[in-house]
Amino acid sequence: MKDHIRQLEKELKQAGATSAEVAALVPIASSLGLLKAANPAVKRGWKHILTRAFKPTLTLVAGASVGMALVMFSQSVLPTSWLYPVQKMADSVAVKVDPAYRAAIMMKRAQQVDQLVAINAKASVVLATLADYNSAASAYKSAPHANYAAFEYCKTNLRQAAAAAPAAVHKAILASLSSLETS
Question: What are the percentages of helix, strand and coil residues in the chain, rounded to 5?
Fold first, then answer.
C-alpha cells in the first residue's frame, strides 16, 4: 500500500501538482481505487465492453428472429388459431411488397374455407373467412394480369366446401361461387 501511495505522489508531482495539492489528492486517489474494487457494478475488461456494446444488437436480432418465426408459423394456421391475425398482417405486408401475392392470399382463403367446413368450425368463423376470401378475390380480379387458374383452384375448394357445409354456409359459398362466375 505504501508503494502505491509513493507511486501516486510521484505521478502527481510529474503531472505538475504542488506539494499541497499532492497531500490533498493522494488520499482521494487512494480511496478511488478502494471504491472501484469494492463496487461489484464496476466491471473491467473487454468482455464487459463487448457485452455492453452488443447487448442491444443481440436483443434486436433475437426479437427479429422470434418475429420471423411467428410469421412463418402463422402462414399455415386456420382462422381459429390465435396466430391468424399475424397471418393476415403478414399477408397485407406481402401484398404491399408484391401485389401479385394477392393470388396466393385468395387461394389460401378459399382453402381455409374448405378446411373450416371439413372440421365443422363455427359458421361465424367460416363466413368471416369467406368474406376475407371475397375481399381478396375482388382485389385480385381488378389486378392486371389476373391468373384465371388461380380462380379455378378457388372454385374447386369452394365447391368442395359447399358440398359439405351446413345450409347457411352452403348458401353463402354458392353466392361467392356465383359472383366469381358472373364477373
Answer: 80, 0, 20
The distance of Cα 119 from the centroid of its chain, to the nearest Å, equals: 29
- Summarize pLDDT for 124-155 with one digit per residue, the tens: 999 999 999 999 998 888 877 777 888 899 99
38-54 pLDDT, tens digit each = 455 555 666 777 777 78
Task: Give the residue numbers spanning the domain of 8.
Answer: 2-38
Phi, then psi, of 182 in degrees rounded to 5 = -90, -15
Q: Assess whether 19 and 83 both reside in one domain.
A: no
Q: Number of folded domains in the chain? A: 2
In whole angstroms, how far apart are CA 39 and each of 32, 35, 43, 88? 11, 6, 9, 51
Whole-model pTM above 0.70?
no
